Structure formats: C-alpha cells, structure tokens
From TrEMBL, chain A:
Keywords: ATP-binding, Nucleotide-binding, Transport. It comes from Vreelandella salicampi. SMART domains: AAA. Residues 23-249 form the ABC transporter domain. This is ABC transporter ATP-binding protein. One of its GO terms (cellular component) is plasma membrane. The keyword ATP-binding applies. SUPFAM superfamilies: P-loop containing nucleoside triphosphate hydrolases (SSF52540). Belongs to the ABC transporter superfamily. Macrolide exporter (TC 3.A.1.122) family.
UniProtKB/TrEMBL annotation, chain B:
It comes from Vreelandella salicampi. Residues 31-226 form the MacB-like periplasmic core domain. This is ABC transporter permease. Residues 263-377, 736-848 form the ABC3 transporter permease C-terminal domain. The chain crosses the membrane at residues 28-47, 259-278, 312-339, 351-374, 395-414, 420-450, 478-497, 733-753, 785-809, 821-841.
Amino acid sequence: MSDSSSSYVSAPYAHASSAPSVLKAQSLCKSVTSGERSLTILHELSLDVAAGESVAILGKSGSGKSTLLGLLAGLDTPTDGELTLFGKQLSRLDEDGRAALRAGRVGFVFQNFQLLPSLSALENVLLPLEISPRVGESQTAQEWLARVGLGERTSHLPKQLSGGEQQRVAIARAFVTDPELVFADEPTGNLDPDTGAQVIDLLFSLNQEAGTTLILVTHDHALARRCNRCLRLENGRLTPFTPESLGEDA
Amino acid sequence: MSQHAYHHNARLAWRSLKRDLRAADVRALFIALVLAVAASTMIAFFLDRLERGLERQASQLLGGDVVLEQRDPFAPELRRELEDAGFTLSDQVDLVSMISRGERFQPASVKAVDDVYPHYGVSRVERGNGTEELASGPPRGEAWADPRLAELIDLEIGDSIQVGQAEFKVSGFIEREADQSAGFGSFNPRLMVHTDDLEATGLVQEGSRVEFEILAAGPPEALERVEPLLAELRQRGVEVRDIRQDRPQLGNALERAESYLGIAGLAAVLLAGVAVAMSTRRYVERHLDTAALLRCFGASQQQLVEIFALQLLGLALVAALIGALLGLVGQAALLALLVNFLPMTLPPPGVMPLFLGVLTALAVLVGFAGPTLLRIKRVSALKVLRRELDPMPPAAWLVVSVAALVFGGLLWLYSGSLPLALALLVGGAVLLAVLWGLSTLLLNGVLAIVQRLSGRGEWSKALRLGGRQLARRRQAGLGQLLAFSVTFFAMAMMVLVRGDLLTAWQAQLPENTPNYFAINIQPDERDPFEAAVDPHVEEKSTLYPMVRGRITAINGDDPREAVPADARGDNSLRRELNLTWQAEVPEGNEVVAGEWFDVDANAVRETSDWMSAVDATPQTSPVPISMEDGLAERLGLTLGDSLTFSVGNDDITTHITSLRSLNWDSFKPNFFVIFPPDVLESFAHSYITAFYLPDDAQGLTRELVQDFPGVTLLNVDAILGQVRDVLTQVTRAVELILVLVLLAGISVLYAALTASRPVRAHESGLLRVFGAGNRMISRIQGAEYALLGFASGLMGAALVEIATGALYITVLDLAPRLHLGLWILLPLGGALLIGLIGHALSHSLRRQAPAASLGLLGEA
C-alpha cells in the first residue's frame, strides 16, 4: 500500500481513495456518568477508513484511544452517533449480532498480547478459527506460526515464550482468519524498542501482503509514521496529522 | 447453531477441559462431584438392596407373601381365587395339644405342614447325622420336635409319641423353622407333623382351638391383584398378614441407621454442592478473559455458554462415572460389614442407583454452578481492552434459591416425601437468612475485637492486619464463613449424632440385658424361685403376675364391630391377652396420656369398688386400666374408652385411664394391658420374669429345671447376640458413611481456599512490595484464616445445637441435649484447621516474587 492512496482532510477525516469504505463513524459520542457527574470521552467524532488503508490513532495516555478502538471494533456501544462496519450499521445489531459480524473478518493485536495462558501457541492461533463459521484448519494455523517465525514452537505455552514471541503469536492469531480489518492496540507497548521494531516490521509486512485494513492505536510516533494516515485524539476529537509534523513523542 | 459449529464447540470444550484438569478449581469441582455421586449412589445402592432383601426375608419369616389365618377351614373358592391371581398355596394347621411318651405328658404347639412347605428358606433339623438344612416338613407318620420338648419328656430320635389318637415316630429335632421369626411368641415347645396325619389324631373337631392357615407365595403383581380380596377378608375377621405390612422388625437400631444413612448421604451431597458452588466461582473468574477474547473473535453468547457448559458437563459425567464406581465399591464394603446380621444373601445391585448418581451429579452441577456459570455469558468483549470490566456476579439470592430448589428436588427424590422436602427446604431457607444476619454480626464482632488488640507483638499485629484484610473482603469473607460453618456443622453433626446413636443403642442393650425368661411360675413358687435365682443373677426384672383374658366388648359393642375395619383380624381380638397388675409404672414404660392409677390412701374406697366390681353384680364402677399406646392406636381406642375382658368365668368392665409407650426391644416382660392391684388376684395366675445369667452361672438353669419343673426357662442369648451384632455392624456402616461426609467437608475447605487464593496472592504480593517479610506475611495470612475458622466454628456450634435438637426429636427419637464441648472444640478446631490448611495452600505464594503474585490476579 502506497502513501499516495490516502490523503489527510480536515473533516470528516475521510479517505480520498476510490476503495470502498470498510469502517465509517459519524458524530460518535461517548460519555460516562459517575454519580451525578458526566464525563465526555469522545465528542462528535467522525472517521472513514477505506479498504486496504492503514490508519494510526495517536493520543496521550487517558485520551480515550482504547475507548475509541472498543467502539470502532463493536466491542462497546457509543452514547450517540452512528458506526458502520462492513456496510452494516452497528446500532441495528445486538451484542451477538456485532460478534457475528466480527467473526472471521476482524483481527486483534493487543498491548498485553491476550494469549490464553493454558493454550499452546498453536492452540491460541487456532482459537479464532474455531469460533468463526469458516472451517478452521490446524494446517492454516501452523503456516501462520511459521510465517511469524515460530514454526518450531507450536506446542510452547505463552509463559515459555518471550514478550516479542508472544506478540508474534498474537499477530499470527490476528491474521489467521484472513481478516479484512485488523485492530492493533499499542502493539509495542509492552516490548523493548528493538523487539518492538521487529514486531512492527512483521505486522506491516503481513498487513501489506494480505492487503488488510489496519487501524492502529499508539502513542509511538515512529510506529504511527509507518501508516498511510495519522490522526491525533485530543479532548475527545480527532485531528489529522501529517507524518512530517510528528515529533518523536506525543 | 450448525452441526459444524457445534462440533467445533465440543472440540474446544474438550481441549480446554483436558488442560483445565490441572487447575485447582477444576480439581476441586471434580472431587466434589465425585464425592457427591459416591455418597449418594453408595447409600442408594445399599438401601435399595437392603430393601429388596428385607422384602424377601419378610416373605421367608412369614412363610409366604400373604398369610391368611382363621379358626375354620378355608373355602375352596377362596383358594381358587388366590391361585388364579398367581399364588402357590401351602396349607398349615396350628393347634395346642398334650403329647405323651409313655407316662410323660407335655403340652406342645403342634404345627401341621403340607408337601409344599416351606415356600422360602430352609429348616435346620437334626436327624441323627448333625444339623441338616431341609426345604420340607416331616414325611407322613413322622414328627419333628423342638429340642426343648426332647428335654422335657426325654425324647430320643426314633422314639414314638402319642398325639391325640395317633402315634408318630420322632425322626428329627427342629432347631430352626424355615418360617419362624426369631421371636418367642409361643411358649409351648413345637412339634411339627404332616397335614395328612392330622385327621388320624382326631384333634381337629368342632369347637377345638385350631388355627387354619393358607400361606401364599407369588409375585408382587399377584399381591396387587388380591388387594381388594384381602381387605374384604380382613373385614370378615380373617387375620391377613402380608409382606408389606408385616415386615420383620429388625428393630429401632436398623431403622435409625437407615435414617442416619439417608441424612448423612444428603449432608455429603449438600457439602459437595457448596464445594461445587465455590469452585465454580473461581472457575468462572478464571475463564472471564477467555470468554472476553472469544467474544472479541466473534463468539455468540450461546456459543460461550455451550463451550463452558459442555466442558462442565463432560467433567460431571466423568465424575459421575467415577463416583458411581466408588459408590458400588462402597456399598459392597457396607454390605461386607453388615453381612453377618443380614440373614440372607441380598439381591445384586440394580441399575436405578446408577441413574440416581448421574442425576445427582448433574443436579448438583446445575443447581450449585448454574447461575454462576451464566456470568460467563454476560462477559463483555470490551474486557480485552479494559480488564476491570468484569460482569457482576449473580445475586446471592439467585444462587442460593436455585441451589435450594435443586437440593429440595434431591431431598424429594431421596426421601420420597414432598412435604418433608418442602419443610426441610423452607426451614433451610429461613435458617440461611438468619445465618446470613448472624454471620454478619459475628464477623463484625470478631473483627471489632481484633482491631482493638493493643499488643505490639508480632502476633497481635498479624491478627490486626489479617482482620483488616478480612474486613476489606467482607462479602467474600461472609460467603466463606457461611460455607465453613455449614461444613463444620455437617461434620460435627454427623459425628455427634453417631455418638449419641451409639450411646442410645448401648443404653438400650446394656451389658447385663436379661438373657433368660422364666414363665409359668406359680404363686406358691414365687418366693422360692426368687430366693433360688437372686444370689446368682446381677439383673432381674420384677416378677409380673400374668392372667389370661380376652377382650369381649369395646364400648359395649362386639369388638370386631367397634374397631376400624383393618383391625378386625388383629391378634389382640382373636387371642387371649396376657394381663398383669402393677401399682407403679413398670421400668421402661412411660405414661404418654392420662394418669397412672392413684393407688394411695384416699383411693381405698375406689379400690373396694373395684373389688365389688369383680365379686358382685351389677358392677358399680369400671376398673381403670393402662394400655400400650401402639395397641390403642391400632384398635382406634383412646382415654375413657371402655373394654370388657373375659377372665376365667367372669367379665370385667374397664376403662382406659392411661396410655403407655414402651420399648419392645428391651428384653424385659412387656404388657399391652396393665390393671391396678387387687382386681385380678383372685384369678388363676402365674408369674413371669427375666434375668441376666452370666456365662459362669449357667449351671443354675439345670438346678432351676429340677427344682421348678413347671417353670419354663427360655434362653434368649442367641436373639440377644443377633441384636448386638446388628448394633456393632450398623455402627461400622455408620462410621464408613461418616468418612465420606468428612471427605466432602474437606473438599469444601479445599474449594473455598482455592477460590480465594489469587486475591490473597495479590495481597501478599503488595505487602511484600511494602517490605513485609516471609514470616510476617505468613502470620498475617495465618491470622486471617484462623479468624475465619474461629468465627465459622462458633457459628457451626450454634447450628449443630439447633439442628441436632430438631433431629433428635423428629427423626431419631432421642432426647435432645446440649453439647458444651462443641462450643470450645469447634471454634478452636476451626481456627487451627482453616489456619493450617490456608497456611499450607499459600505456602507456594509466599515463595513467589511479588511481581508474579501481582500478575497472578485475574490470570490463570
């Protein structure tokens, strides 16, 4: 995917490519009430992500990055606004309906890897295949583990793997269903810089090979710079950023 | 859900189950289920076999499945009707006749049997070649005699004896009849002959006292079919005995043991249920992350429930299988312990208890784990991003209600009584509510006291800190407190009830329980007999005078008309009763209604009235009598009812002024009807007594037989030994069950401590970060567990007192008493036990680096 396939516009921060839209958020609001006080985390936020695009969302700790990711992936419901994923309005789907929409089409990479400690590397990768309605083959899972360089460690439990290795298993797991969209939440947050860089290389190369859409939440500018498009989340709103304007730290 | 997806879920469930077997909570869950199934199947198997065995034994003791008895020969139509219903019939005739050998005469109880006799079992007969077991009666022309008869008239095998007008050759001594219960109802020694010889004796004539019996043997369906016929026969005054109504009395001991086994089994199931509930909680918490992740990957709620339910179902089925196998082995062990007292081989185990076992496992799982498991369904996918997003645990009332409902169902299933199950359930629910309140108060109290500890020593600091930890987790602490107190309660109760049962049994049959009965002591022999016996015996009952009398009217009516229809054939109306008189309530009797006779100075006038009642007519006032409450209930009689007795040539009108309960298992003379003194003295009477003769004084019996030839001595050592055997073996069976209950209790402790391990690990990790040493952490944790154990012990003791009191009065029929030792033992023992187990379980945590401990929270 080349940089030229996307551009940065002010609002609603839409992609300018001709590719169809994978995810579209319109006037998303999210507020939480605690007692009598109401706190608005996301404010009238809009976003349009085209198929094959890679988008980085940057923000400080506590800016609401994870909340936004949860909303975009249909893990949570907005207080207001509309979200369309794969052409389906999420507000019209119940929890199970949203889950069914994700099954096999959305992959996740988490900061804390989220590998099930009692499952081997192979079984962790198999997990989404077993949930999805598509036929899951352990052959496929094995191939994906080999692609992330862990073909020899399929039977190892997460605790027998290093942090970088665990995140590579998580990446294999994210891509094993051949998803259309991958969400990554601070994928390097728990890794040292060198390992982080390796993991990021892997993530981007797999993403490019598979032509997957990638939405990445991070506070790491170097990481954000590798995406087609960068957005900054501040005070509940998204603002566009050009790669050149990014410093080393947000 | 498609076949394919289902297959996937099953595979996923199976795979995670296999791996999960290593997890402490799954192990605890598994052990608890195995124990619940083992306990319930073991007891169900055993009771089922015992029940069926007893039925068979009942048939054997009765001589058939139905026995009809009347004074006249039975009509051929009746015989045909019974045969048509599917019975095989055997005829028997009983009469009392004088028999003679040369110049020696002796009344004997003659029993004539046919070729079919006996339907069940064998007789033990000595025919000159040692004792043989024979499934027949004597052939024609021959007679088998009671060894007692042989002793009385010096009989040898081959001798001839005269019975009425016929002569018989004695061909055997009968040691045990196939169809005779181990009682001593008939005082005359037995002579058994063939029915075909009866006519030749000329004894069966109009007006002679002969009992004709039909012994019918057949399948349960046959019994079912003749039910209306039997009811009609009863109304016509025929004595009808059938195996369902006349099962042999194995005595209170076995009945109580059965109750105990039932209660113990349910206690084990309840404890296991508590363990299941606790381990499920931990299991669910441990799998919330997995569930959230699966949700994230697109699993539906139904899929989640299916995966985890399948997993637990698999676990329950394996546990049920293992539990049922253990139950099978356990019931075999139980039977092995009881084999000597069960006179027959029991039928093989049936399959029903096996189903019961599997059902129990599933019910316990659904009831005690169900609502908690549903929590998994409500997990939000967002939890993968925000760890703290755990679904709310199910409401306590929901968990308790579902568990109570299922346990109530099990109670119903096992007790067969819906009212009992409901009563126990409602009682249990009220108790639980009270318990919750009490626990809260208790926990707060204990914590408040601990916080006031002012000592600066390490231990008081540990107690303060431990108490504070407990206070921080008040809700979880309360749950554990409840679980522990119920566990202590169940364990202590089973131990206590067992102890009290044993004490009661031993009190019932003390060391020197009478082993000899002496009957037919004539009034002039009374004092010499006492003088002869007293120096040699340790324990002797009063000498009771005995007068034979027959009930001829009840409230002025024919007795058969005056009593309920099903009591018309009652023995007490058909035969003479043994009447006695006493001034005081006899030992072992208790007046349960009315007043005992007022035999003091101001009653002299009345006494003279009674005298005139006997001597002169018309009668001025009825004689007060005391009646056994069981008989009164059977005949539908109560205080104030009037009975007329025919004694000798006189009629005596009486009225019931008191009802007595008495212990028929006491091995002492017992009487249905007791008169006041000075009423029956003028009638022909003899005395009866019972005494204990130690082994080394057995020579006395020979002297007594020689000096008092008219007195009959009955040795009941064999029966006594049999009853003692029952007690010893039942005791062992009870102990075996107790072990199961204790194991179930320990499984609860294990489950509870496993469930709270991660939270405690997190706390100790934090403490270590703040610089606490191993010793301090270990003391704080020990103190927390010990406090919990102490409070649980107090609570358990209170519960035990309430429950045993209720149980003794309602089910076990024992007098309630306070158990003071319990109030010390349970709290201290609880503190020690929970403290030690908790300490041991958290040992590995203390060696862990703080980072690992802190990371442990929320992960597996």
